[in-house]
Amino acid sequence: MKKVIATSKAPGAIGPYSQAIMAGNLIYTSGQLPIDPETGEMVGNDIVLQTRMSLKNVKAILEEAGSSMDKIVKTTVYLSDMANFGKMNEVYKEFFSGDYPARSAFQVARLPKDALVEIEVVAIV
């Protein structure tokens, strides 16, 4: 069974997709941009601020679905510039304790709204 997950504590979709989908005991989030859900605006032009906001948005979606950051099994991080990998990584590790999830990280040509980072996850409930 497929269930749409939506929360006002993370930015709404900017296209024809859902914030997340729950299928069985797994949650698949869409890529989360560093958009402040209260203002609808991108936070700064700094990888530290943007990574933190993207992960806060992921956390809000998972909590809405009855899950949490420690139940993430896989993350995918899209970066506009791999030179930002180290700073992104420093912020990323603040959001996890114990065993880290599996992860892939890629530099891409461009992200929506010219973001510096976008993060999607797969988590269990």
Automatic annotation (TrEMBL):
<dbReference type="Pfam" id="PF01042">
    <property type="entry name" value="Ribonuc_L-PSP"/>
</dbReference>
<dbReference type="GO" id="GO:0005829">
    <property type="term" value="C:cytosol"/>
</dbReference>
<dbReference type="InterPro" id="IPR006175">
    <property type="entry name" value="YjgF/YER057c/UK114"/>
</dbReference>
<dbReference type="InterPro" id="IPR035959">
    <property type="entry name" value="RutC-like_sf"/>
</dbReference>
<dbReference type="GO" id="GO:0019239">
    <property type="term" value="F:deaminase activity"/>
</dbReference>
<comment type="similarity">
    <text>Belongs to the RutC family.</text>
</comment>
<protein>
    <submittedName>
        <fullName>RidA family protein</fullName>
    </submittedName>
</protein>
<dbReference type="InterPro" id="IPR019897">
    <property type="entry name" value="RidA_CS"/>
</dbReference>
<dbReference type="InterPro" id="IPR006056">
    <property type="entry name" value="RidA"/>
</dbReference>
